Amino acid sequence: MPLLRLKKKQKITEEQIAAIVGKENVDSSSSERLVYSYDATPNYQSLPDFVAAPGNAEEVAALLKLCNETGTPVYSRGSGTNLCADTCPVHGGVVLLTKRLNRILELDKENLTITVQPGVITKEISDTVEKEGLFYPPDPSSMKISTIGGNLSENSGGLRGLKYGVTRDYVMALQVALPDGELIRTGGKLTKDVAGYDLTRLFVGSEGTLGVITEATLKLIPKPESQKTILALYQDIEAAARSVSAIIADKMIPVTLEFIDQDTLKAVEDFAHIGLPTDVQAILLIVQDGPKEIVDRDIHRIAEICRSKQAVDVRLAASEQEAEQLATARRSALSALARLKPTTILEDATVPRSEIAPMVRAITEIARKYNVRISTFGHAGDGNLHPTCLTDARDHDEMQRVEKAFAEIFEKALELGGTLTGEHGIGMTKAPYLEWKLGKAGVAVMRGIKQALDPSGIMNPGKVFAEAASEREANVK
Question: Closest by alpha carbon to 209, among 425, 432, 472?
Fold first, then answer.
């Protein structure tokens, strides 16, 4: 199936957009367009023609219908924290902001659900339900600023993903505006529902290429009654990685099982000043929650396993405040590293948990081979590592080596039975490699779905499906 090509039919005007969202909610000024020309991904920037902020689902649908009729690209955007260039308007058109769609619509304690609009900040959802003794587990590191709509589009993970899963595991129902202006609803407040294809899961993780999510009903669970946090310290990086497999093999599933190497530790401690050990090669940050007696038992056993796998020390967080400081420090890893070099490229190669040690070893060897600086941290418990390269985009020779290094990291992850991305998405940055994972037939199936829902190709064009895969592949192999 040929690659979808966006064909503009006629020029869209600011007046047409204003008639839908209101004059005060559309902007074509240079300053506004510049603000929304990039996201958190380094080295990607393109100016949109317009920035529009609909106020309800009907306005979103009407705007999509207008864009579909005129062949105008649409890029839905929340806070722009994504790391795969998914919200960069590479073909101009309209950036559709969800900032006005920011209401919590319902907290249903009988059915344990919360219904929200896409512009609600993720942490606001967590804080709201925890006041009622409930729990929304997905916790991406950007949760203080990322929107739930962005989490849904990227199927975001987080530190608690090992035990509780990722965003899609908590999505029960959606309202979605389709490219032709239709509004549909999928799913419901149901424990069981097998009526037709699972459209809810289709839209979660679709990276804005199939429609715009305008409402979501999320599953909640009771808040765990207790929690404990430990740090395990290692002078051998691979020993730390082997500990991860050993803990899981012992039939324990911690809430959080994070790996942080020395380079990242030093950056985070310099940033947060909370007394992290920086004289070790790596640490594991481990959290368990649940009934107190089970937490106590698990934490004791996990500490024993870590010591048996060459941990030089295991430390228990002395208070809830210290535990929260440690979690916050881990969430700040990217920000801390980003202070060290002009350009920071964070990836998320993911492998089966049993392959964590070989993957950590491979990242170290690849960084040495290409003479680039790569710090590694990530959700080791679910196999999701974040090799992060500190570089300078102005150094073209080094950037070529960086690109080759990451291509080899992706190749190694696939060789070990893994994938290109565990939580960041494909977007533009990994589109050239998608066929490595899915094969030609798999990519063709995805293109068929895209063609069926978005035949005009207006939804986030230039993303997921590589426009010059063969050229990029030739450069990195």
Answer: 425
Domain spanning 226-415: which CATH class is it, in words?
alpha beta
- CATH 3.40.50.2300 holds for 104-222: no
Contact call for residues 98 and 117 (beta carbons, < 8 A): yes
Phi, psi of 139 (to 5 degrees): -140, 70
Cβ(10)–Cβ(71) below 8 Å = yes
Mean pLDDT of the chain: 94
Give the mean model confidence (pLDDT) for residues 426-451: 95
Give the Cα separation of 229 and 317 in Å (integer).
Answer: 5
Distance CA 270, CA 330 (A): 13
User: Which token pair is 255?
Assistant: 């809430």
The answer on pLDDT for 253 being more than 90 is yes
Checking if the pLDDT of 472 tops 50, the result is: no
From residue 314, alpha-carbon distances to 278, 293, 371, 455 in Å are 14, 20, 33, 56
Binned at pLDDT 50, 70 and 90, residue 473 comes out as very low
Q: Residue by residue, what is the 3-state secondary structure of 268-295?
A: HHHHHCCCCCCCCCEEEEEEEEECHHHH
What is the DSSP annotation of 292-359? HHHHHHHHHHHHHHHHHTTEEEEEE-SSHHHHHHHHHHHHTHHHHHHTTSSEEEE---B--GGGHHHH
Q: One-letter amino acid identity for 283?
A: I
Tell me the domain boundaries of the chain.
14-97, 104-222, 226-415
Look up residue 128 and give its DSSP letter.
H
Query: Please, are residues 177 and 61 in contact by the beta-carbon 8 Å criterion?
Result: yes
Amino acid at 10: Q
Please state the rounded mean pLDDT for residues 231-253.
Answer: 94
**Whole-number pLDDT of residue 477:** 40
Angle at 327 between CA 325 and CA 331, to 5 degrees: 115
Task: Indicate the SS3 state at residue 400.
Answer: helix
Q: What is the pLDDT of residue 470?
A: 41
Q: Which residues contact 20 (CB under 8 A, 6 or more apart)?
A: 52, 54, 59, 62, 63, 66
Give me 345's structure tokens. 């490229």
Q: Is residue 258 within 8 Å of 381, Cβ to Cβ?
A: yes
Q: 14-97: which CATH architecture?
A: 2-Layer Sandwich (3.30)
